Description:
This protein is mainly α. Helix content is 64%, strand content 0%. α2 (39-46) crosses α3. The relative contact order is 0.05.
Amino acid sequence: MPLARAGFGAEPSIVYSVTRFIILASLDNVAIGLVPPLYTPISEDLGVAESAIGLVTAASFLLTAGAAVGWAYVGRPDRPQAAPDDWHVALGGR
């Protein structure tokens, strides 16, 4: 039975997209919260300062955020489809 007929009032793809976004955002928050308590054991095992582990964590978060922005730009639906190897167009070039 379609979701609109079931009383949800939205297309299944919209409900699926919103649900997937909420689940992934929740998992992201869990992953972010798991790292700091592990700084001390990881730094002791590797023989480095906790600040070094924090620096690597911060760099990975920034890299992930940048990649998310890039993928959102490349995958936006209002953009004409470019060839897969046409990265200069995807990154704003002509």
